[in-house]
Design goal:
Elements lengths: L4 H14 L8 E2 L1 H8 L3 H13 L3 E3 L5 E3 L4 H25 L2 H20 L2 H18 L3 H13 L1 H7 L3 H12 L1
Helix pairs in contact: 1-3, 4-6, 4-7, 5-6, 5-9, 6-7, 6-9
Length: 178
Amino acid sequence: MKDSLEEQVFRALEQEILNGVRRPGDALTELGLCEKYQVSRTPVREAMRRLETAGLVTVQPNRSAVVAGVSVQDMLDIYEIRMRIEGLAARWSALRITENELQALEKILDLQEFYTAKGKPEELHRLDADFHRALYSDCGSPMLTDTLTALHHRLQRFRRTSLSNAERAARSLAEHRG
């Protein structure tokens, strides 16, 4: 089934914000977004509400929405929270993982190792997201999965930059193998 127009606009804007295409402080006008995505105002308004709920934009009454930034303190807080609850997800995954799920994780790690050696940060970013998505899914808790996924999304732009550093990429691989 095809996503609704609101879902399509939401996902497109979410990716633009998380990937740094739209920067903190950038204005998002309804009319401009309607033209860009070839939709009416309703899907744009609904997408804006969802982006505001996700903390990615600030909607000002009778004005355009503004891309919200992730402050250094926000980033540190998110990493601290993730560090603590990702350990829980890893423990639950270890207890519940199937052989097929384990093989899928090992395949991701093998590819991470390959692309780490090749110095391919874009591939590493994609595989890092795949690894975390699989780990969260394998833990067997939809609530924990949703929470960790939301936190992981908020750091997407910073993770991309981080994995561009060869030393950090190698440390990330070692952490994932562990």
